[in-house]
Each structure stands twice: as C-alpha cells, then as structure tokens.
Amino acid sequence: MNPTSWTDAHDRLLADTAPPVPESPGAELEQIWAQTARAIEGEGSRVRRRRVGVRVGVAAVIGAAVLGSSGLAAADLITARTGEGPVDAEDLRLGGPGEKLMLAAPDFGDVIAEETVDIPFPSREAREISLRDQVHDERFAGTDEFTTTGNVRAWTAKMALCSWSNQWAAATRDNDQAARAEAIDMIQAAPTWPAVTAIDPEPYSRMETQKVADEEGNVTTEHYRDESLFFYLGPLGQAVEGSDPAAVGRILAKDSGACVAELVPDLTQADPLYPER
C-alpha cells in the first residue's frame, strides 16, 4: 500500500489537536537544569558511566514538566535557589546579602542545611531543631516570598548561640568545667563567625532621632536607641564569664528573639515566651 501524502489539511488538524506550549523564561530553565544536575551528580558512578544518554532523557522530562504546568516546573524540580542577589543598596539593606531563596520551594530545608553547615552547634539535635523551626515558620509562604542566604545564616547563628548558652547554663549548674569552657569559647568567638560578620561587621548601639506625626498632624521629635543585629554578642560574652543564668537569659530574650523553648531547656529565661508559660 502506498503511503498517504502529507497535506496542508494534516498540518491544520495537528495544530488544532496539539496543546499550546508556552515559552519558559531563561532563568526558570536555568534553575531546572541546575536542580537536575545536582540530582544527577547525587546518583553516583552508575550515572557517570552512562552520562552520554542522560541529557536526552532529562530534556524529555523537562519538556513534560513545561507542558503539564503551563511554563512552571514540576514540584520536584522547583528549587529555592534563584541564582539572584540584591540588585541595589536598598535591596541589600532590606533583604540581606547573598542569594535570594524562594521560601515555598520543597527543597528550602535542604538549602538551609547546605548554607549553614559551617555554623557550629553543640549537638546534632540542636542543629536539627534550628532547621525544623525555620522550615516550620515558612510552611505557609507563597511562591512570591523570598529571603536570602545571608538572613538564613544569621538566623541560624542566633539559634546556635541559644544552644551554646543552654550548654553553658547546664554546665554551670552541674559544675562541668569542660563543657562550660567550651560554651564560653564558642559564644565569645561568635562575633567572628562569617554568618555574623556578613550581616553585622561593625556592631553598634547609638541614639537616633525620628519625626513622628500624630493624628492631628502635629510633628514631634523622638529619640530612640538603635542597635545592630549582633550588638548583643558583646554583653553576652561578658555575661557568660559569670554564673548568673538569669543575666544571660535576659540578654538572649531581649536581643536574640531566636531562642525557641526546645533550644534552651536549661535556660528558660532565654525563651521570649517564658513569662507566659
């Protein structure tokens, strides 16, 4: 049997039945390729032996994802990493340094873990509490909400300090001089941590003024004290040389705001909600 010739009618029929394929932004495709590359690397030597054939299969997967989500990658290919940073000084001041991260991405927790691996914690359990708390806080975030690696690292550093302060409190109570000395060393070294210096390289506490207008339009000048994010580390480093848990707890509760109850079971004064419990 002779094959039927392809005609313009066939082209029209195919065009009518084929779904429209929206064009994906280049940045989106770059994110998908980056996530896919990490997944491929994670499969080990089995993948490396057949690397030539991998890219074709991956391209088919990406094509299916684009078709099925009108230009958005499938959920398992969406990543928190955007490859973007602050665009100007104001963006840097408001959002913090480093790469912008999408809070709603399914791998947000994995990215936090990668970005904060250098921040010391007294135990693996404390590190896991810190990670779980951050992921839990962002569980209702939308795809248009972002943070930065600088902010994530700074917040993690704060929680690490809560953990070391808790070790200090328990060791002081139990007269465990080795654990107490370790905690003091860590707390007093914290101002040099890269996660701290990236956000607050020169801690300060200074008086500022601002104009305030009331409901009737009357303008008055108010004075207030402005302190940088990690200014409290100086007083904290001095307080742990003593043996008063309440003094250490007050500094953390006032200036840190990161000491969730699970991180400070032996230093309840550091939990901002302690007075309510």
Q: Looking across the biggest beta sheet, what order are the strands in?
A: 1-2
**Structural class, please?**
mainly alpha
N/C terminus separation: 86 Å
Which of globular, elongated, flat, extended, rod-shaped describes the shape?
Answer: globular
Number of helices: 12
Beta percentage is: 5-15%
Major β-sheet profile: 2 strands, antiparallel
Name the helicity range.
40-55%
Question: Can you give keywords for this protein?
Answer:
277 residues; mainly alpha; two-stranded antiparallel sheet; 12 helices; 4 strands; disordered N terminus
Written overview of the protein:
This protein is mainly α. The protein contains twelve helices and four strands. The strands form two sheets. The protein has a two-stranded antiparallel ribbon. The chain has a two-stranded antiparallel sheet with strand order 3-4. Strand 3 and strand 4 form a beta hairpin. Helix 6 (108-115) crosses helix 7 and helix 8 (149-174) packs antiparallel against helix 9 (177-189). It is globular, with a radius of gyration of 26 Å. The N and C termini lie far apart (86 Å).
